């Protein structure tokens, strides 16, 4: 039976059930069979198994046990207010995912169990099944675990079986945790004594098991396990599990939200079922931004999803799920039934709890399928970075931000990100979210202030600064000033010429000192040396570059002096150092160590120039900012620059070496570049990259980047490369010479296809 026919049949069954619920009453006991577990339904006037389930996206903070506890409680209260009987939370939501090496500390484990004790005793946690995440030590091994409890009893502690270790994307869980490699094995975990005092349990099940409620079966998988080819939800579904809960802490990547929805759909498409996906959102003190794309899928359809790029700390999505429709859907898949009949059986952990609401309070209809909206590239760049920036500012306790604004592409995108942040804050304040308003008041240090205008709010939060450069055109200064006026930041312009002149004078004086250190007449030899030194400032490329670097470092020093000297917004000075924003795009890191592209954080450090232009195009239409047209025009790339940028993105995304990159580019640019041109481009890119790695090394306190884009979060690469890359480069030319005939034939075919396409048009 086709998928559409099966879904139509399930919807028809649901409709018939609803009619029966309204028109008749039944008070007999019945038996339902779920997988291999006979489940006794209690006496009720409604015998339909309607489960109300919730998942959430929480803005947790690493090691903020009190704040994390309060957000968990708030999510449980929101779930119960919606009628939910099960709440699924994000990965490690008690400690926060980004604890790093603090996961290895016994104190972290102890504090996490104390939060569990508080949750077990909280009134909001009664009459609902709750799963939370924390690190747990079992047999002197630390595991990344989910703990499920219900009515002051721990039901199951389920360790993570597949760890995320993609270090180039910011995951290194094997550094802290051990994977549970015992499928369908359960052991006994000894509880801390203070937990035993609350629950009366000395030990609880620990391992790979499924939970048997009185009316359904529930399974758990954690984050990475969804993305693995051997996902546990497959055998669990074959063993009769109807509800699978996935607790995740996934960093945002461009375009990943669509993939998340696709994966969650596919988890229930082939074999039916309900899938709850939870994710953390915002910045928890870790290197990246968590996307917060929590959602619920039933039989291959998304039936609920949290909003993306929200500033609210707690987001909860609830759906009503017809479990009988799941059973009908599965039974219609006859080949699945054959496989399920012989599938391995999981250990069962019983819990005396009804997940379905079987009272007579009213008739619940199942949630309907929906199509979540997907953000564009520009929206992801601007809104994701805006949420991350706000989390950093409010949690760092800084009184505002300082943005060096030069009128160029990268710093202009940083400015628009901050403007987007202010627009979001005003929107949340208008919608009556008091917690956001209180956080704004704490930063601007004005009780009673309620933001109502984005530009006015920006004037309180952001100071922009334009510092002149040696080759600075008046047009760039005007663009910076106009952009600052449009977004509302407090803008200032400063000169560094006198500072540069003073440092040049110190250099000249060093050359003019007498060899013996006396105060006699200046020797002609040193006078000539000083003259040569002065001449080099205007004639030598090396000294010209040194002078440019001197300008850049002096600007950086002045930027940090401004950030520490005080705040000038609205005539009021605020104590505290401003957060300095660097603006250096991916793969174009400045070769000036400690230069003016340096900062406390970098909002554009994971984006290529192509992505930044898309962000400005999006902002141009969404925010109606004509000034961006001029910035985009001045930031246009040459054809050669565009090709180099394309090559850099491929290297970052596909992790290719010089020879592999050459082959890749030859296929991508067959009609535009000769093999020799591709070879020279690749050699140039890798040579420059090697030089930049040395410049980047040894910088203390490297600025944190907002990381949804491309490239490694903390590249594990050498800092000193062979200057000529002789061995890798030596294989490029022989390769394309040996494939010359194939390449020529491919170019001919491509040109013919292009000609045919133009004829059709």
UniProtKB/TrEMBL annotation:
<dbReference type="GO" id="GO:0005737">
    <property type="term" value="C:cytoplasm"/>
</dbReference>
<keyword id="KW-0436">Ligase</keyword>
<dbReference type="GO" id="GO:0009435">
    <property type="term" value="P:NAD+ biosynthetic process"/>
</dbReference>
<dbReference type="GO" id="GO:0003952">
    <property type="term" value="F:NAD+ synthase (glutamine-hydrolyzing) activity"/>
</dbReference>
<dbReference type="GO" id="GO:0004359">
    <property type="term" value="F:glutaminase activity"/>
</dbReference>
<dbReference type="InterPro" id="IPR003010">
    <property type="entry name" value="C-N_Hydrolase"/>
</dbReference>
<keyword id="KW-1133">Transmembrane helix</keyword>
<feature type="transmembrane region" description="Helical">
    <location>
        <begin position="12"/>
        <end position="35"/>
    </location>
</feature>
<keyword id="KW-0812">Transmembrane</keyword>
<dbReference type="Pfam" id="PF00795">
    <property type="entry name" value="CN_hydrolase"/>
</dbReference>
<dbReference type="InterPro" id="IPR014729">
    <property type="entry name" value="Rossmann-like_a/b/a_fold"/>
</dbReference>
<dbReference type="InterPro" id="IPR036526">
    <property type="entry name" value="C-N_Hydrolase_sf"/>
</dbReference>
<keyword id="KW-0472">Membrane</keyword>
<feature type="domain" description="CN hydrolase">
    <location>
        <begin position="51"/>
        <end position="323"/>
    </location>
</feature>
<protein>
    <recommendedName>
        <fullName>Glutamine-dependent NAD(+) synthetase</fullName>
    </recommendedName>
</protein>
<dbReference type="InterPro" id="IPR003694">
    <property type="entry name" value="NAD_synthase"/>
</dbReference>
